[in-house]
Every structure is written in C-alpha cells, then in structure tokens.
Write a structure and sequence with these properties.
Number of helices of chain B: 15
Chains: A alpha/beta (about 475), B alpha+beta (about 475), C alpha+beta (about 100)
Shape of chain B: elongated
Structural class of chain B: alpha+beta
CATH topology of the largest domain in chain A: Amidase signature (AS) enzymes
CATH class of the largest domain in chain A: Alpha Beta
Strand order of the largest sheet of chain B: 3-6-7-10-1-11-12-13-14
Number of domains of chain A: 2
Bound molecules: magnesium ion, zinc ion
Oligomer: heterotrimer
Strand content of chain B: 15-25%
Number of domains of chain B: 3
Number of strands of chain A: 11
Shape of chain A: globular
C-alpha cells in the first residue's frame, strides 16, 4: 500500500486527489460489508475536500502535509453535518453542528476525511464488540476481533481502506487495536492533541492519536493534529510536534528500561517479541536497564474507578431532551430513564453504574478518592523510572488478537487486556505501539515504547529503529 | 417585627448574582437579557457532545472584585461538577466551585454598625429557563415545559454569608448593602426583578443563648420584600411547631408570594446525591498577586466609603439628608453631587435634587450631565430659579437634555426683576396691614404668609429667599 | 474496606444514573460490578494517608479566554436535533419537582 507521505508528495506534484480518494473508496466498497469498519462513508464531503486540494495544487499552492490523503475518523469525533454516533443508539442520526479541532486541522493540511469508523460504544471496550451497530472484524483474520475501542480505525488502515486514521486512547484504545491489527498506533502526551469535539469518555484520560502503517506516516499525522488549541483548557501551551526531523536519529546512547510488570502474564510469543525488541535496541546502541515498577500493577484498579466515574458524569447529558434518542414518557424523569435504558448498551450501563457508585456519598473516599491517590503514586513511580532511563519497553497487549465472544462474558477478563496500556493514560505520558513480529496463528504482536510527557520525538525514533529491523 | 418573648432567629443568606460580562462563563456566546429563545447558544452552553468549557477571564476578575470588596481572601481554587438531572441544565451537571472557592472568609459591615461574615463567594454557571405550559403556568399542574438555553452558562457568583443575621430588617440591610457593592464593583446591575440577583435564605430559630436549631432553606426570593416576609413567616412557623411540641425537619422550602407562606419543597431524605468531583475539563485557578492587584487598583470606593465622603460635605448632616445620601449612593448619583459641590453649589440642595428629581427619572440620567445639574442647582441657589422652577428644569433635562439657562428661558422662567419684586411686596404690604404690623413686631412666621402671597401674585416666579430679603429690608 | 455490593446498592445507583433495570439485570450487574470492585481490593488495602490525589495528569493553571463575543449557532441549528420543539424552545414532558 502507498504511504500517506508518498500520496501527499505526488498530489502536491500534480497527481489527482480525487483519484486517490477513489482508490480508497474502492477498497472500502470491496471490504466494508465483510469487516464493518465504516459506520458512515461521507462521499460528498470527501469529494469536496479532494476537489479543493486539486484546485489548490492547480493554483500553484502547496496543499499541505497530507494533501489528498484519505483519512478515517473514529466515530466519536464531531464532524459538521456528518452523522456522529459513538456507536450508540442514543446518538443514532445525530449530526453535529461543528467540527472537532482535529478535523479542521486535517482539512487545513489537505487531508480528505472519508468517513466515520466503528468503535466500542462510547469507546468503552477492547474488542469493538460493544458497538450498537455490530462488531468490526480483524482484516487479518475475520474470525477475530480487531481490538478496541478504536477497532474500526485500526481495521481501516490494516485493510488498506485508508493509509491513515484517527483513534482515541483512554486506556489503550489506540495502542491495543494497533497491536492486534499489526499497525502503528500512538497515544500522545495528554494535552498535546486537542480534545475539542472528541466526545468524552473519561476527560482526564482521553487523547486522540494516529494509526498508520509506518512510523513515518504516524509522525506526519501527529505533527498535523498536535499543538495548542484555545478551545481545550487542558491543551498544553506547546506548538505542534516536530517528529520527522529526528525520525532517523536512532537510539544510540539512550537508556531503555525493560519493565517486568509490562510483560508479566503475557503469552510466550508476546514475551519473545519484547525480548527480541530489546536486543534490537541494544544492537542499535541503547543501554538496557532491567527494572521493576510495582505500582504499575495497581493501574487497572485505579483506572476502572476513575474512568467510569468521569464517564458517569460525561454521559449524563444523553437524556432525550436536546438531541439523539428520546423514548416518550409521562414526565421528564421517566423520559430520561426510558431513553437511557433503551439507548445505552450493557457495557456502557455497567460503567455508568460503577462510576456513579464510586462517586456516591459514603463511597467516594474509598473508591474514587483512593484511585486518585494511586494515580499520584503511579505518576511518582514513572518519574523515578524516567529519572534513570529515557524510555521504557514492554508489551502492548498480553496476547495476539482473540476470537469473538471469548471475553465478553466476564468484564474483568476483557479489562485485563488493557493492563499494559492503562498506566500511561493515568500518568498522561506518551506511548507508541509498533508491530514487531508475529505470534500465534501468524498474527501480529505489538511492542510498546513508553516515555515521559512530550518525549514523542525520542519514542518515534526508537520505533523507527524497531520498524527498520523488521525490514520496513 | 418581634418574635415571641425569648426567641431569636438565625439567618444566613446565599445570594446568587449574574455577572455583567460580555460573554458567558465558559463560551463566547453573548451574555444578554431578553432575546429570541435559543439564539445565544453554542455547542458549549448547549452541552453538545465533544464540547469543552474555557473560563472567561473577565468573570474571574469580577469575582475577585466582589471578593476584595467583601474583604475575602482570594485563594487558589478549583471547579467541580455538581451532578443532577434537570432539563434546564444541558450537561446534567453544573460546573461550580466546591471545596476551594476563589473567595473565602470575608465580611460585610452594615450601615447600622453590625457585621455579617462572608463564608465564601464562588463562581458557577447559570441554568437555562423553563416555561410551563398547561395548568396554571406554574410547574405544578403543567402538562409540559419548554426550555430556552440562552441563560445557560451565564456567569454567577454565589455569596454565602455566615449565620449572623438576627432580624428580617438586618437581612434586608445586608441584601441592600451587598447589592450596592455588586453595583459598585461593576459585577452586576443588581436588578432583582429581572433575576440578576436571587436569594436563598437559611432560617432557624432558638431560645436566646441556646445552640443553633435545625435550619430550613427557603429558595429563590426575588425581592427585598419577599426576603423579609419569608424570613419572618418562616421563623414564626418554626416557633409555632416547636412550641406545639414538634421538631423542625431539615428541608428545602418554597416561598409563595401570593399566599405569604412557605411550604415544603424537598425533605433532607429526598435531597440529591450530587457526586461532586473535580471538573476534568478545567484547570486550577490561582490568580497571581499581580493579577489580584490589578483588579484591586481598578476598584472605586464602596458604598459605605462613598456615603461617608458625601456626609463629610455637610457640616451637620440631618437624618433627612443622610437618607438622601443613601439614595444617591444606591443609585450611583454621587458624581452629580460632587460636581455641584465643586461648582460651589449648596450640597444640601444638590442632595435633595439628586435624591428626588433624578431618582424619579433614573433612566433619564444619560441626558443629564453633571455640569448641567450643577448649573441648575446654582441658579436655584442664587434665586434665579424658584425651587419649583428648578425641579421643572431638571425634569426637562432628564427627559431630553440641553442647557438649563436655555430651558429656563424657553419656559419663561425669567426671574422677577428686583424692581418688580419690590413693587409686588409694597402692594401686598398695603393690602395686608395687620399681618405686616405683626411681622414688624417680630413674628417671623408671617414671612411665610407673605411669600405665599408673592408666589400667588407672580405665579411662582419669585424666589423665596429674595422675598425674605425684601421683607427684611422694609421691616 | 472490602467490596460487598448489594442488589439494593445497584438499584440505588441505577436510579441515580436514570437507568431502569429488570430483576435479571439487577442480579447480573450486582455480580459483575462486585467482581470489578473486588479487583479494586488490592488498591483498598494500601495505606495512602497523606498522599495527595491527582485528578489531572498535568498541573496547568489559570487557563482563561478573553471576554470577547463569538458567534452563537442559529436557533435553527440549535433546534435541528431536538426530539421535540415548540416556539423556539425544546419541549419536554411535565417536570415533577423543582430544581435542587
Ligand atoms: Mg450554587
Ligand atoms: Zn455558548
């Protein structure tokens, strides 16, 4: 498949963005029925964007770093006039009157948003099985999940439908599906990418990030969408990342922490991949430091109280009054209840109730309050680690892609999928998942590189080292 | 008002005031009263999925101004979410300050010398407005409601007093003084009737010297009159209950203005579990000293200081003049009085004219310059206008502006010439010999008799002082 | 504090969250939520007195915007998605009880 960099180069040189779009739409047409990746393909908007790029190039302008590159958007990002559902019945048919900041930035960079991809309802899940509109299938093995919650966006890139896509990562929702679909996925530093227009799951954890086939493509996309946004109070006062310039700078002289807790409990093939990645980094001049960060094992418990607590409040607004689904009833409270009962799926209800409980009178201190203290401990533990090493290495997920239905009965079994990714969301730091070899059933394995806030240039350069070792 | 012997009421007030900003608290929608429903609404104040709040700098400054005027400590503060479902609240949570308010621990001194402590004055967002259809138009009995979100997200400061108020009169004085401060800081227009200032009252009673009793909260008192009536009613109700051997339940009560009574709205058991937690979409607010100082330096004097300044212009202020000063400060008419004083006019006359004539047509203030006001007062003082004429000239100035001399001329308010006045007085003396004789013998009261005759004869064009001068000259 | 979530707790929480549960759902959610809370027991055992809570990853302060008017949506855009509207306003069934 042609990379995004290549497409942008040739479109800026005069190749037709409309033709690039048509190639993308052809793959979508061919495979979407089977894989259920796109919930909505916005042909009209995509053609308009592609034509605008072609006109700009014809007028002699540089059409941007992503000129004519088709991009898929997770369906929890607001697109003006284009259905945005969060894969929930409660928002079915809703068309936002505004664009998310990332969407405006994509358009400004010449990208062509082609449509909205499937996800676990309100981004709650790790397999995209929790979508109200049916699961997405893993393009590498349609009997298996693509991971989640950004399963649709990961599958779009893995299936060659679009060279790039955006996902959101609250507890691993970009990195985990990237690993299971064999592509690159990035959870940027909290506050680096605007959340304005990203439909909130857990506001203090959510972060939008790129999916791409190559590290370089992921870098271009992150450069385009990052940088301060005055519409998001939690947006860091920093400019957009500069990643391409240091992409080939390698890892020589870097100290890498090989963290026991970020591999523990993984399948053997995953452990092997991580060990091999360590060897590659060492070969490239890095110093390996074996370390243990016991606090990381508490991440899961803290996360499954903090995220639902915030979600219970973020999802209160779906009450049938202003937009989305309404189930009629005699009085407004009964209408709210009937609407929410019919509109939310079981996982969303589970988390809303869990979060409501954690925040309620009498339990706040023991659950939510305690979780915030654990979060403090975790941040301190990461800081201690980063005082010693430049970045950390571990697995992204404990296993390769699993089959449908294997983890849906027991929520805890599903939650355990995110054990390696969650700590970075709690700390707000950066992490990237890179495909590195294969495991069971010849399915891809992802390894994870984790660094302190704003360490993206270092992480991308290290990811590039691993990618090169894989012959890409 | 008197409570039964031995009883005392304990009252604390929560005053919500809308801030006079250009935009709402967390979005750029215009903050304006009265417009097409749902026309001042955006993704943020409509709580659309994906929208995020960004704090209005001016709202923070006005909140600090209020805090400074109330002698509060400005402290590092945070925003919380107060979670409850209600259709006028688009996110189904209110963003408000909780355990760390921007202003903490201050006080307000009242004109009677008493001090009411301020526990906190914090920032929060207002809700939308509901209209009830069917039934009586009240919430009860309505069959459906309509919601307008223009007010949603309008900045509010909630000022919470300590339980220091002991009488309805003191409650009224507190609310009135606070209103003056809100206006003086520029934070609010203080218009209670338009809902830009709303009061909740926490009322309990006790036998003097006993610990505090159980309190009831009376919601949404929208005028000073409602405030005093509701507090009085509630205290008497609680005393009745206790004297009948009952106990007071902690609850929220509604004030019915027409019936003149309070009734149960919600008991403590029915109270919401608000699940407060830190608003993750906003960051800490910790105004640095320099920012606080800028706000402090921009503040003019507060009402108490302004009253003192005006009173100091009088050598021996009389009660009626102190009342006039209160009106003048309350309506922010100080500039007129000070201008008149600087122009050499009599402060007593200026105060009376401001507290009566300007106050009677307060909206006409825009037409009346301080210099036109001063000039009119001086004309009256010099005898060029009678009091009646001066009032008429001021009325004209308030209605349509202009120059007082020209208005007086156009109205035909040429003062009687000295000759003409002398002739009139001479004639009247001849016509009323008995009264003139008594006046000459020292009965000063008869001066008023002659003034009245002169006024009648000249259709009010004479100046009272000039008449007295003429009489004395002939005595 | 060990997790011992009862059926009544779940019913109470569902009501707070405006969700209606059938009897079977009540049983199922009680069991599932208990499991998650049991997992959180590891955290409950820690003595974290004196540790400050962290609600935000990074400690930004004083993020404000200028008090400058920006265009609002049109009334038509505001009401476009309304399930029910009347007279330029959102229409809802009767409200029982005043706002808190
Ligand atoms: Mg309040
Ligand atoms: Zn707005």
């Amino acid at each position: 498949m042609t990379t995004a960099r290549e497409i942008a180069r040739r479109v800026n040189d005069g190749a037709s963005a409309v033709e690039e779009l048509e190639r993308s739409l052809a793959v979508i047409t061919e495979r979407n029925a089977e894989l259920n990746v796109f919930l909505h393909v916005d042909e009209e908007g995509a053609y308009a964007a592609a034509e605008a790029v072609d006109r700009a190039v014809a007028a002699g302008q540089n059409a941007g770093a992503l000129a004519g590159v088709p991009v898929a958007l997770k369906d929890n990002m607001c697109t003006r006039g284009v259905p945005t559902t969060c894969s929930s019945k409660i928002l079915e048919g809703w068309r936002p009157p505004y664009n998310a900041t990332v969407v405006d930035r994509l358009l400004a960079a010449g990208a062509v948003p082609v449509g909205k991809t499937n996800l676990d309802e309100f981004a709650m899940g790790s397999s995209t099985e929790n979508s109200a509109f049916g699961p997405t299938r893993n393009p590498l093995d349609p009997a298996r999940v693509p991971g989640g919650s950004s399963g649709g966006s990961a599958a779009a890139v893995a299936a060659g439908m679009t060279p790039l896509s955006l996902g959101s990562d609250t507890g691993g929702s970009i990195r985990q599906p990237a690993a299971l679909c064999g592509i690159v996925g990035v959870k940027p530093t909290y506050g680096s990418v605007s959340r304005y227009g990203l439909i909130a799951f857990a506001s203090s954890l959510d972060q939008i990030g790129p999916f791409a086939v190559t590290v370089e493509d992921a870098a271009v996309l992150l450069e385009v969408i990052s940088g301060h946004d005055p519409l998001d109070s939690t947006s860091l006062p920093e400019p957009a990342f500069s990643l391409l310039s240091s992409l080939e700078s390698g890892v020589a002289g870097k100290r890498v922490g090989l963290v026991r807790e970020l591999v523990a409990g993984s399948d053997e093939d995953v452990e092997r991949a991580v060990a091999r990645a360590a060897d590659v980094l060492k070969e490239a001049g890095a110093t390996l430091v074996e370390m243990s960060i016991p606090e990381l094992t508490l991440g899961l418990s803290a996360y499954y109280l903090i995220a639902p607590a915030e979600a219970s409040s973020n999802l209160a607004r779906y009450d049938g009054v202003r937009y989305g689904l309404r189930i009629d009833a005699d009085d407004v409270a009964s209408m709210n209840e009937a609407t929410r009962t019919a509109g939310f799926g079981p996982e969303v209800k589970r988390r809303i109730m869990l979060g409501t409980y954690a925040l309620s009178a009498g339990y706040f201190d023991a659950y939510y309050g305690q979780a915030l203290k654990v979060r403090t401990q975790m941040i301190a533990a990461f800081s201690r680690a980063y005082a010693d090493v430049d970045f950390l290495l571990g697995a992204t997920t404990p296993s390769v892609a699993f089959e449908f239905g294997t983890k849906t009965k027991d929520p805890m079994a599903m939650y355990l999928n995110d054990v390696f990714t969650i700590p970075t969301n709690l700390s707000g730091d950066a992490a990237i998942s890179v495909p590195f070899g294969t495991g069971e059933a010849n399915l891809p394995v992802g390894v994870q590189l984790l660094g302190p806030g704003r360490s993206e240039p270092t992480l991308f350069a290290a990811a590039r080292v691993l990618e090169k070792a894989e012959g890409r | 008002m008197a409570l039964p012997e031995g009883w005392e009421m304990v009252v604390g007030l929560e005053v919500h005031t809308e801030l006079k900003t250009a935009t709402k608290l967390f979005c750029g929608c215009e903050n304006a009263f009265g417009s097409e429903p749902n026309s001042r609404v955006c993704p943020v104040c409509l709580g659309l999925p994906g929208s995020l709040p960004v704090l209005n700098e001016r709202a923070v400054e006005l909140a600090m101004a209020i805090g400074i005027a109330l002698h509060c400590t400005i402290a590092p503060s945070t925003f919380h979410r107060k979670n409850y479902f209600y259709p006028d609240m688009p996110k189904d949570y209110q963003i408000s300050q909780y355990d760390l308010p921007i202003n903490a621990r201050g006080y307000l001194d009242l004109p009677d010398g008493s001090r009411v402590t301020i526990e906190r004055a914090h920032l929060e967002e207002d809700t939308g407005k509901t209209t009830h259809l069917g039934g009586s138009g009240r919430i009860h009995g309505a069959d459906r409601s309509l919601v307008d979100y223009n007010r949603s997200g309008v900045p509010l400061v909630e000022i919470v007093s300590g339980p220091d108020i002991r009488t309805p009169e003191q409650a009224r004085a507190y609310a009135a003084e606070l209103r003056g401060i809100l206006i003086a800081t520029g934070a609010s227009d203080g218009r209670m009737e338009e809902g830009s200032m709303r009061i909740d009252a926490n009322v309990s009673v006790r036998k003097s010297g006993d610990p505090f009793g159980t309190r009831c909260e009376i919601k949404n008192l929208n005028s000073l009159r409602s405030l005093t009536r509701a507090i009085e009613y509630e205290a008497l109700r609680q005393i009745d209950v206790i004297e009948d051997g009952g106990t007071i339940r902690q609850e929220t009560r509604h004030w019915d203005e027409v019936a003149g009574e309070t009734s149960t709205m919600r008991t403590k058991e029915e109270a919401e579990d608000y699940r407060y937690f830190l608003e993750p979409d906003l960051v800490e607010l910790a105004p640095e000293q320099a920012w606080q100082d800028r706000v402090r330096d921009g503040l003019g004097p507060m009402p108490a200081a302004r009253r003192a300044t005006l009173a100091a212009l009088l050598s021996d202020p009389q009660p009626a003049q102190l009342d006039a000063i209160e009106v003048v400060v309350d309506l922010s008419l100080d500039d007129y009085v000070h201008a008149a004083h600087e122009a050499g006019a009599d402060v007593a006359i200026a105060l009376a004219r401001a507290a009566n004539e300007i106050a009677a047509n307060i909206d006409g203030r825009a037409n009346l310059t301080p210099s036109a006001f001063s000039h009119t007062v001086l004309m009256e003082q010099r005898g060029e206008l009678s009091a009646t004429q001066a009032k008429t000239v001021l009325g004209d100035l308030l209605t349509s502006g202009g120059d007082p001399v020209a208005i007086a001329a156009a109205r035909g308010f040429e003062q009687l010439s000295a000759d003409s006045l002398a002739d009139t007085v001479a004639t009247l003396i001849v016509e009323n010999p008995d009264e003139w004789q008594r006046y000459r013998e020292g009965d000063d009261k008869l001066a008023q008799f002659f003034i009245g005759l002169v006024m009648k004869a000249t259709r009010g064009q004479a100046n009272g002082k000039a008449v007295i001068a003429e009489l004395q000259q002939r005595r | 504090m060990s997790a011992s979530l009862t059926r009544e707790d779940v019913a109470k929480v569902a009501a707070l969250a405006r969700l209606r549960l059938s009897d079977e759902e009540l049983d199922l959610y009680t069991e599932q939520l208990s499991k998650v809370l049991q997992h959180a027991d590891d955290m409950q055992q820690l003595d974290l007195t004196g540790v400050a809570p962290t609600a935000h990853p990074f400690g930004l302060i004083n993020v404000v915007r200028e008090d400058v008017v920006r265009p609002s949506l049109s009334q038509a855009d505001v009401l476009a998605a309304a399930p029910d509207a009347e007279d330029g306003r959102f229409a809802v069934p009767r409200i029982v009880g005043e706002a808190p």
